[in-house]
Specification:
binds zinc ion, metal-binding, SH3 type barrels, globular, binds cytidine-5'-triphosphate, Asp_carbatrfase_reg_N_sf, Aspartate carbamoyltransferase regulatory chain, mainly beta, five-stranded antiparallel beta sheet, 12% helix, Alpha-Beta Plaits, 3 helices
Length: 154
């Protein structure tokens, strides 16, 4: 078990641990991906000391196994996070994240004239990674926005 957070947040028996979330992004990850909308126990650690990143946030969700598709969506907010699968107290799978091609239903379009604000449609953005910058292009208004400007909206 990690030296980073031993005893900082209790170990879980079964479920998922999202580790190495940038400090101050944990709450946003929780909220945008609705990870707290469950009856299962969720524990979070904020501003935990981390040997690799100074401070980190961490989210543990018991009895829920985060699949690769959702894990990769998390990469938009926490590119260096790892998603651990825990079974009977053991880490049985450790996913490192790669950017998804699309992100649906998570972010709102920053363009106030976009039809997604007036029609009951799911938002959908194509993820465009170019020269270290990540842009999200709205499927409906076709405008491209920086990852930061989309992620910071709510
Ligand atoms: N963890 C947990 N419950 C367990 C086992 C592990 O909550 N029963 C958590 C650990 O606290 C850690 C994460 O799952 O936050 C990953 O565990 P582990 O791979 O053992 O830690 P590290 O080796 O430090 O992981 P990494 O190399 O990804 O930093
Ligand atoms: Zn739009």
């Amino acid at each position: 078990m990690t030296k980073d957070n031993k005893l900082q947040v209790e170990a879980i028996k079964n479920g998922s641990v999202i580790d190495h979330i940038p400090a101050h992004s944990g709450i946003k990850v929780l909220r945008l991906f609705q990870l707290h909308q469950t009856q299962n126990r969720v524990t979070i650690g904020l501003n935990l000391p981390s040997s690799v990143q100074g401070l980190k946030d961490l989210i543990k969700i018991e009895n829920v196994f985060i699949d690769e598709e959702l894990a990769n969506q998390l990469a938009l907010l926490a590119p260096n996070a790892t998603v651990n699968r825990i079974e009977d107290y053991e880490v049985t799978k450790k996913l490192t994240l790669s950017l998804p091609q699309k992100v649906n239903r998570v972010f709102q379009c920053p363009n106030s004239n976009c039809i997604t604000h007036s029609e009951p449609v799911d938002t959908s953005f194509a993820v465009i990674a170019k020269n270290d910058s990540i842009k999200l292009k709205c499927k409906y208004c076709e405008k491209a926005f920086s990852r930061e400007s989309v992620a910071e909206r709510r």
